[in-house]
Design a protein that fits this description.
This protein is mainly α. Helices cover 43% and strands 5% of the residues. The protein has a single domain, classed as lambda repressor-like DNA-binding domains (434 Repressor (Amino-terminal Domain)). It comes from Liquorilactobacillus mali.
Amino acid sequence: MTVDLNRLKAERIAKGYTQKDITKLLGKENRSWYAKRENGIVSLGANELLEIAAVLGYDKNHMAIFFKDNVPVRVRKPVTE
């Protein structure tokens, strides 16, 4: 599983926050701190993701929304009923 940065961005936009807003709410001084993480330039740490998710209104029990499976299609087994 990997962090879905597109989902992170979409949730931020849906809540009406700019990158600068998130940065201020996290107590950081520079917007680039957040922008680099949202754009995948700097790896997003687990604690950082928890802090950002909390600002967006998600608690640790609802973190799955920010992850995606990254198993290659050729390795996946078909679903059988």
